[in-house]
Amino acid sequence: MEKEKATSGKSLTNFKSFNLHHLIEAGIEGAGYAVPSPIQAASIPSILSGRDVMGLAHTGTGKTAAFVLPILQRLMDGPRKRVRALIVAPTRELAEQTHEAITELGRRTKVKSVTVYGGVNKNPQIAKLRNGAEIVVACPGRLLDLVNHGEIDISQVEVLVLDEADRMFDMGFLPDIKRIIKCLPVKRQTLIFSATMPADIRGLVQEVMSNPVNVQVGDSNPVSTVSHAIYPVEQHLKTALLMKLLEGTDTESVLVFTRTKHRATRLATQIAQAGFVAASLQGDLPQTKRQAVLSGYRNGKYQILVATDIAARGIDVSSISHVINYDMPDTVDAYTHRIGRTGRAAKTGDAFTFMTHEERGFIWGIEKALGETVEKRTLQDFNYGVPAPAGNDGGHNRPRPQQPPARRKSFTTVQGKAVLHQPTASAGAARPSFPGRDREKRSGR
Ligand code: AMP
Question: Atom 11 of ligand 1 has which residue's CA nearest to it?
Fold first, then answer.
């Protein structure tokens, strides 16, 4: 396998060097992209030349445009109103975001993209497919459903993209993916993007790709512009500590992770009751509500979003300044995915992780993966001595494995990144920057 290693330093190329169609260049300019990101610089030439590419890259690296731009270039020639590119994504949010990227970058090209995913009425999707589209961005289940009912013809697909492949495997989509691939022409270009390279992905690469070029961003670092901190705290004090942090930290947009849907809903309510503008995103929400919450978060209506892992997958909000792990993630990979929500597009971000006594061992895994010790912080003006209400730890204080997770990754982080605001001993020293919060308070909610 050939290897292209993208450095995380400055990109040497510019978009002109790809010789893309001028209508696509207009889209790039419209999106405000000045220079290609490292993954784009390393993978676009190979994809344009028709090679299969295995891209090891996290979200936030610009991987979407890395495959969207060459796909648009290919589609400028040849038949229209026929599905020629298929992008398979693990979640509807990611599918929608990819569709939006295609719409933005391909605005002038008249290339059409349609999203196909479950949880919503299939008829509008079928109607759009019948109108004719060249790109389909799909989640596996609904795609197979429409294929089996003859509503979509993928027999002439020229390019297949499996995006966030590791997450699709984690979610159990491997059998569906294999079924989808059986419906595609054998002669095609296959692009796989994944944040990690577990054995099942390696197996799939060998099975479905032909002599792929391997493209990797840096050392597969999660997002090099993120600084990490651990906040040791007992389970029953997590909510109080979160409020204290939100009060005392200068934040732009905050994403809080909980372990369960119920906890996400409850915590968002508690945060809102404390006067912040917050919403929750979890898998039980109907699709229309999810979209409303996401767009509210994206446009700044909600400064705080409380989400579960699956719901948050693929959230692309470039202004997230803080990711707070209210509950510890289950694996190092999940940690990486979560913090990949901040520090996007070369902005900086902070990742705060609450750690109960039982979870200390898990931090070793994260530290081993990061290749450094993560700073432990305590707030001087926070009362850590408040006892737990008798018999109540919320039932969530389940012990964690003391062993670091087996999957080893070699991350690097930018050292010495300044913390936006270090909470201090003086209560209320920093003015929280939540304009919407004041608005909300005034409106008496
Ligand atoms: P992705 O990793 O594809 O989810 O992209 C992360 C974010 O980076 C998205 O908001 C993109 O719009 C943005 N982005 C992608 N490529 C570039 C680029 N070359 N310059 C600036 N922003 C970019």
Answer: 62
